[in-house]
From TrEMBL:
Stored InterPro entries: Calponin-like, Calponin_repeat, CH_dom, CH_dom_sf, SM22_calponin
Pfam families according to UniProt: Calponin (PF00402), CH (PF00307)
Top-rank lineage group of the source organism: Eukaryota
Protein name: Transgelin-2-like
Location of the Calponin-homology (CH) domain: 25-136
SMART domains, alphabetized: CH
Family, as annotated: Belongs to the calponin family.
Length: 190
């Protein structure tokens, strides 16, 4: 995992420290509490980054979460109990695919290494937060603000034609005024 890597230095260290500074332990606590409530797993809900990583890094709880929101999204035979790193990372990848199926936009999906190697736990929180907002669509308690619902409007051909005859004020109007006769300032001397 990440402990076998060389320490970052220079710009890379600055960038990584900036990413780590955006991690919100309070949000992580809320997300872990939400996961605990849905999955009925006995997990530590401390929002500390080390606990957050340790709780979610094998991906099994995340896969269980997806299957609770939408049963059968990840087949049980695909979820790995193995101690091998690549099998755990595969679980995380199954979660990410399932999250996209449930409507999490691709901009809010994290990379597997963001969680596995603790590269960007903030991105993991963003993904889980997005998934938590969509939980009400699947009959479960959601977390965060309610998402907007589409308000589709349909207009008849008659209504659309009526709008073509109106000249909007954004096109401008001068109500018959002209610029003739305006003398402003002194004349130009050559």
């Amino acid at each position: 995992m990440a402990e076998n890597r060389a320490l970052k230095s220079g710009f890379a260290a600055e960038a990584h420290n900036k990413i780590k500074s955006k991690y919100d332990p309070q949000l992580a606590f809320q997300l872990l509490q939400w996961i605990k409530d849905l999955t009925n797993e006995d997990i530590d809900t401390d929002g500390d980054s080390k606990n957050f990583h340790a709780t979610l890094c094998d991906g099994k709880i995340l896969c269980k979460l997806i299957n609770i929101l939408q049963p059968g999204t990840i087949p049980e035979k695909k979820i790995n109990d193995s101690k091998l790193a690549f099998k755990k990372m595969e679980n995380i990848n199954h979660f990410l695919e399932g999250a996209q199926k449930l409507g999490v936009p691709s901009e809010e999906i994290f990379q597997t290494v963001d969680l596995w190697e603790q590269q960007n736990l903030t991105a993991v929180c963003i993904c889980l937060q997005s998934l938590a907002r969509k939980a009400h669509k699947y009959g479960h308690k959601s977390l965060g603000p309610k998402e907007a619902e589409p308000n589709i409007r349909t207009f008849s051909e008659e209504q659309l034609k009526a709008g073509e005859g109106v000249i909007g004020l954004q096109y401008g109007t001068n109500k018959g005024a002209t610029a003739s006769g305006i003398v402003f300032g002194n004349t130009r001397h050559m």
